[in-house]
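Task card 7
Instruction: Convert sequence to structure tokens.
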Amino acid sequence: QVQLVESGGGLVQAGGSLRLSCAASGRTLTSYNMGWFRQAPGKEREFVGASKWSGGSTYYADSVKGRFTISRDNAKNTVTLQMNSLKPDDTAVYYCAAVTARYNSGDYYYTDPVKYNYWGQGTQVTVSS
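Output:
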């Protein structure tokens, strides 16, 4: 199975940028479609975006589309979430998650967190106004 560790969170002013990384170990990332989620205090875990196992496709929640970008380097076993034009509403703990890829299926993103098999511990992102 795969282990995931996020890093790169911190405090940033509104309009700023942060880059989160998710480092995988134990198995190669080509075995997994990857997702990013976030959870603010008192709220449910929210889908942010996803990346296909091959790195060829990405999908984003409407709330972050055009501001956030997911990329992955399968050779380095890492997935990154570049966050630009940050808003106070983006404040949350951010998690990367993995779901075993089904190579014959066109499906690669799931907005329901229960679909994902593996999770990192999360990294805090705080955006001040």
